Amino acid sequence: MLMIALLAVLMLGANRGYAEQPPFPCHPNPNADQDMAAVAARGDIASLPAPLQSQIVRIAGRPHSQLPTQAFNEADGASQLFQYYLLDTNGFEPNVFTTIFPGVNDHVQLTAAGTNCGLPTIGTVRVVLEPKPDLPTDPNDPRAFIDVFTEIQLSRNRLGSSTLRTAVYGRIPR
Fold first, then answer.
1. Residue-wise pLDDT tens digits, 1-48
2. pLDDT at position 22, please?
3. What's the rounded mean pLDDT across residues 117-134?
4. What is the rounded CA–CA span in Å between residue 154 and residue 30?
5. Is 14 exposed, middle or buried (0-12, 13-18, 19+ CB in 10 A)?
6. 102 with 130: CB under 8 angstroms?
């Protein structure tokens, strides 16, 4: 029995990953492990595809102003995820707004996004269909009720961090 409990703890820990924290003098997330565990265990996250779940849990572990938005079913049936996007700044060409270039911008006040304290900006977009009564359940039907949840986490410079959140609810009228 002890072996099964230990194995479960190891598997849950491996699924959560590690918390990315910015170097000093930027502010880390002192509750990273608890935040990651809480988000990973949420009903709206636990059943998502592994890459999406991993990215949302990753956002929870980084410095943030609030945890990723919790998606609640608005209909009797479960929401149906039909699209998702994983966003990050890897592969973007360095520029003066995101990178310090010695002799060019190393003595200027950083922009609101700063240099992200060395962490890449990451995000997710979840697009779900709400199976409401008397509405289509085909996400391709413009009369279907679609929710869009966007999480974009960027670490600011010495000032702290910010997480941009949007939630778009509703349906396209006929």
1. 544 444 443 444 444 457 888 877 778 899 999 999 999 999 999 999
2. 82
3. 88
4. 17
5. exposed
6. no
